[in-house]
Amino acid sequence: MSRKIATRHRLVRRPMPARAAVILAAGIGTRLKSPIPKVLNKVGGRTIVDRVIDACEGLGCEKIVVVVGNHSPQVRAHIAARLGEGAIAVQDEPLGTAHAALAAREALEDFDAEVLVTNGDLPLIEPKDLEPLFQLRAQGARLAIMGFEPADPLLYGRIIRGADGHVIRIVEAKDLNPEQSAVKACNAGLYLANGKDWFRWLPKVRNENAKKEYYLTDVVGLASAEEALVRAAFAPESAVMGADTQMQLSAAEAIFQHRRRAHFLAEGVAMPAPETVHFSWDTQIAAGATVEPYVVFAPGVTVATAAVIRSFSHLEGARVRSGALVGPYARLRPGADIGEEAHIGNFVEVKKVAVGKGAKANHLAYLGDGSVGAGANIGAGTIFCNYDGFDKFETHVGAGAFIGSDTALVAPVRVGEGAYIGSGSVITSDVTPDSLALARGRQVEKPGWATDFRKSKQAKKAAK
Question: Any catalytic annotation for residue 166?
Answer without folding.
Answer: no
